[in-house]
Amino acid sequence: MSSRLPHFSARLSSFTRMAAAAFALALLTACAPSEPVFRSTDITGAEYGKTLQLTDHHGQTRTLADFKGKVITIFFGYTQCPDVCPTALSGMSEVMQQLGADGDRLQVLFVTVDPERDTPELLAEYVPVFDKRFLGLYGTPDKIAEIAKDFRVFYRKSGDLAGHYTIDHSAGTYVFDPEGRLRLYMRHAEDPALMAADIKALLAGK
Fold it and tell me: What are 179-191's pLDDT values in tens digits?
């Protein structure tokens, strides 16, 4: 019986080494950084972008709470923008197509930073061209300035301020999850496929 002890001890030692190696591998795996859930910039927990109360192009007062249960994207721009704004809205139109039936669970909001020229009638003509479900939002100049400040959005008139002016402005898109929490910041001209993937993740509860 004692002659079998060295063989048993060798097997036990081998098992111990294997267990230790497995534990070390598990520890390394646990410490390794996981793949990011989102391709866009994750700003979960941001202390800004908390207030939004404007009028949509149908004349209805809107707040973020109106769209609870949907992912919300917010872009600040103006209807006479030569390239950045139509590019952003076209990109979101492509996102809607890629989402398919889930497109009804996404609300795209376009907030004008040119309230002097962007009347409700003009927003009603411009915004739905990209998708009939999109909403244009407007308010008084002071109200727009207040909300833009809360979202850390920069905008400034440039050129002939008497009427023939352009507006320099921030070009990213803010994204809220279905619970109404600010979660993501999407860069301008991001790939619609990547944006759609991030929105699907939010819809799935990520």
Answer: 999 999 999 989 9
Pairing of strands 106-112, 135-138: parallel
Closest CA to 141 of 167, 166, 171, 117: 117
Is residue 18 exposed (0-12), middle (13-18) or buried (19+ Cβ within 10 Å)? exposed
> What does each C-alpha distance from 28 to 24, 25, 102 come to in angstroms?
6, 5, 38
Q: What is the pLDDT of residues 103-153, one digit of tens each?
A: 999 999 999 999 999 999 999 999 999 999 999 999 999 999 999 999 999
Residue for token pair 């799935």: 204
Burial of 40 (0-12, 13-18, 19+ CB in 10 A): buried
Alpha helices, DSSP H, located in the chain: 5-31, 84-99, 120-126, 141-150, 192-203
pTM across the whole model: 0.82
Q: What spatial distance separates the first Cα and last Cα of the chain, rounded to whole Å?
A: 59
Tokens of 126: 């411009």
What is the spatial distance between Cα 132 and Cα 112, in angstroms, rounded to a whole number? 17
Buried b (16+ CB within 10 A) or exposed e, 74-108: bbbbbbebeebbeebbebbbbbbeebeebbebbbb
Residue 94's pLDDT is: 97
pLDDT at 58: 97
- In one letter, which amino acid is 205? G
